[in-house]
Here is the input.
Amino acid sequence: MHIEIASINCQGARDYNEDSHGQWQNERFTACRGAEGAGGEGGGDIASQLACATVLDLFGRNPTLDGDVLRSMLETANESVLAQQLLGGLQAQMRTTVVFLALDTQTQQAAWVHAGDSRLYHFRHRCLLERSIDHSVVQEMVNNGMLTEEQARAHPHRNLISSALGAQDGSLEISVTGPVSVQPEDAFLLCSDGVWEHMGDVQLSETLGCAMSPKDWLSQLKERIKKKKKKGQDNF
Here is the structure.
């Protein structure tokens, strides 16, 4: 199985960038991870980078699609963020969402795990097959029939998350999906809310459908998001 990876990380209109991403590969496994920090300058960026480093290091020691192991990786990353908070100052309230994808080229399967509203999308035949479900206030409203997915993307409380690494009240919720089968030409997108609040499921599928490569797809997404020219546009 041939895997091609492309990535972008844009600051948007913010004064700082709290998003981070990373990847890891060996002859059998590929892992990709994205995160969106919260907590302000000097906090969220540290939390997201720390979570990234911790999760990728743990996976590198024991690459697997086992859901319990993937969940444990995020729990350990959470402990790392909580320990860093003890340093105080700008880091005292830092938190981060996280989404992590693991691919096994030998079994041709994938599994993913997430906390918060950083998302994973799985496309097949350039159509959306599945995506992660946010841990957020508006997602609960969608689940209860109070909002549509489209309304949720523009809701003023769309950024209120109900789970994140670094939460000190024991509210951490982690969701694991898979393993699921992967077919040739499948595509995965890991992104922060700076992408999905501007690009709905249909738009993501449309841009993927006319993209010549993963890099071209991300370039199209970047241009569309930047054209929104939203004041205070988030990192993406």
